[in-house]
User: Fold this.
Amino acid sequence: MKALIFDKSKTDWQTSKGFELVDVPEPVLDEKENAGDSEYVIMKVHYAGVCGTDKGIWNRVAFKDAILNSIDQEGNSKQKTVNSNQQTADSKQQTGNSKQQTADSKQQTGNSKQYRIIGHEFFGEILKVGSNVKNIKVGDFVSCESHVVCQTCYNCLRGQKEVCMNEKILGISHDGGFAEYAKVPQHIVWKTNTGKIRPEVAAMQEPFGNAVHAASKVNLKDKTVAIFGLGPIGLFLTIVVKGLGAKMIIGIEPNPVAAEMAKKLGIDYVVPLQNTVDSKQNTDKQYAHNQAVTDEIKKITNGIGVDVSFEMSGFNSSVNNCLYATRRGGEIILFGIKTGDFVFEDFNRLIVHGFDIHAVIGRQLWQTWETTRALMENTENGVQEKLFNVILDRGHETILPISDYSKEKFEEMMAKHPKFLIQF
Ligand SMILES: NC(=O)c1ccc[n+]([C@@H]2O[C@H](COP(=O)([O-])OP(=O)(O)OC[C@H]3O[C@@H](n4cnc5c(N)ncnc54)[C@H](O)[C@@H]3O)[C@@H](O)[C@H]2O)c1
Ligand SMILES: [Zn+2]
Ligand SMILES: [Zn+2]
Assistant:
């Protein structure tokens, strides 16, 4: 099958870029070989969404250790299986019938898989189910929670699966959905009613859920809100925050295409951001807030600052922009991610201003998905129209058939469209 991968055996992380389009073996359910497969399903992927996380992997600025280490771990566990097969084979050899098995084991050793299939936002149809799969059947249309959780750790047992202590992430530490077929455990599968949610929108449930989860941390009714970063998740958040009755929403975003989209979604102001680093007087302090931006936000809010700030870009200076744009006693939600250390500017200010700070990861299982479904299935609130007509521009140049993939085309689409889908 066709898949977009990072191949550790052929590509050096440090010096490479992008995803390779290759033919890889189709996933199989083989319960005789692996009893765990009874809990898995195989789905035909129809649409897969590309997001900031994938851009981070494409540019090799995020998830290096998680991807490389998990590929090694999979190799090691396969090696163990091979070794134990070998032992079985050796003991059978004594009874004289195992030459073939030994040869098979050797072949597996040579074939140890060295790649990761990328992609964690996808939608498709169930093709096969393992013998222990309940409530999901062949022909169901589904999307997936991207965190493959253990369901047995301290946090999972207390209902905090989004912070599972043993999780794997699709497209990072577990094979994902930038492929014709995906094999996933039943406990992350989310059924979707295509009579109510169109497939292209259904493929965005996972990242839309991020925005729903972030918004759920605070009461937004009648609040003034700033959203720092209007990438896809910041745009989704604009829809959700507006729906929850915020009094005013201010976006902060350098990309004019994203800023225009946010205006179509009903944002009240977008504060442009140019050359943030160069415009700082002291270039050593690339982490520092941007005075022009925070002054503008203060001006719009009559000198007070916003009640709630959402950091949705993952830049250090943007985190500090939140700290300088939020009123004393206000709330700050940190969501954007980058690898490495960040600096809190003038740390004592953070305490003295009495901020409430929240960090948000993933989606709550399954509360966030239920809210997402309710928002998307509702025919009155315009959420689906905003997602399809505005953010996906009705599919105009925002859907890439996998047969048209090239690295150049993919880069062009990442630069042009805050959100786009791959069609398999
Ligand atoms: N916490 C989580 O569970 C979680 C999940 C998914 C993604 N993420 C992270 O959240 C962030 C947003 O995701 P996305 O898919 O929308 O990403 P994205 O990278 O597509 O969007 C980021 C946006 O921020 C803008 N931007 C750049 N510099 C900025 C600055 N200094 N101030 C304000 N905006 C700036 C960019 O132009 C872009 O539009 C990323 O950092 C991503 O890695 C977090
Ligand atoms: Zn994503
Ligand atoms: Zn767990």
